[in-house]
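Posting for a labmate who doesn't have an account.
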Amino acid sequence: MKIQMARLTPVGGPFPTVTVVVPSYNYARFLPACVQSVLDQPAVDVRVHIIDDASTDHTVRVCQELAAQDPRVAVTRHSVNRGHIATYNEGLAAAETDYVVLLSADDLLTPGSLHRASSLMERNPALGLVYGHPVEFTGEPPQTHSGSRTWSTWRGRSWIRAQFRRGLSIIYCPEAVVRTSVQHQVGYYRPELPHSGDLEMWLRIAEVSDVGRINGADQALRRAHPASMMRTQFGTVVRDLQERQRAYLSFLQASGLPRATKQELLELVSRRQCEEALDWVISQMDNPPADGSLLAAVEYAQSAYAGHRGLPLWQAYQSRTGSGCRTPVADGVLTNYGTWSRNMGNRIRWQRWRRFGI
């Protein structure tokens, strides 16, 4: 990782062009604020492409009003619902600008986010992907930080290794800006990965280009609400882990990386997936859910990583279930230490991601 001081003055010449694709299905109530957050971006020549996937609310009227108010807004309407993957891919494939962003209609860009990202990419032609910190919110959008003192860059393969080591996706989506030529080169979302297609696509981009990150500033606002796909279709821990593992396996199968590197990466992510499952199980054992998800997570951990019995988290799980032969006092001490250690490890991982994006 290389950290540089952020220089946000224009490189020279005309502003870089950015297409922001806004897929929408029954999100008419969110569209005006989403589109305005894009149109207000300074120091970039921005275009908005709204794709209405046959919404049944008043999205058509809202789109017509937005397009009439600003010529930078274009609208495509589907006569039949094609689903989110096909809609995403349609918008990305149609982009002809320097950079492209996929922004859900319920999310927002933060002030100056496109200028910060494009400034980094204009100075580093090898970068195919730039991201930053996304703020998750409910209700009214919160205040965000706009100050950016540094940015980080990685060689693509180094970033890929860091992503496999982390397990959980480093990038959520609305904060990602992609060089359009690279996007067209690697292709778009895989239809067979409806939940984890973005993770797999970031890996493909990193295989052919370098990756950058804006440090300090918040780059996007990500809305959390009960109607989101993550909460309605992929709401269990095991399902989320399974879908992510499918993304990693899909990438490795198609990747041109050396065989030994692929095996090493698979070992890294399998161990991390196992640890995530066990960490969740242990956190739920004092008040276990009644739906059988605890057992499913244990079974997933065992199947995900052949070396699970040698992991400290497995030993902690065995201790909590009474499978060991320690005394109650020793078990209590180890349980308390294990809880502290797990919480500290998770906190360190979060802080590293928050500060350095990896």
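Reply:
Got it, the structure tokens are right above this. The beta strands are 2-5, 17-24, 45-52, 73-77, 99-102, 108-109, 127-137, 150-154, 177-179, 210-223.
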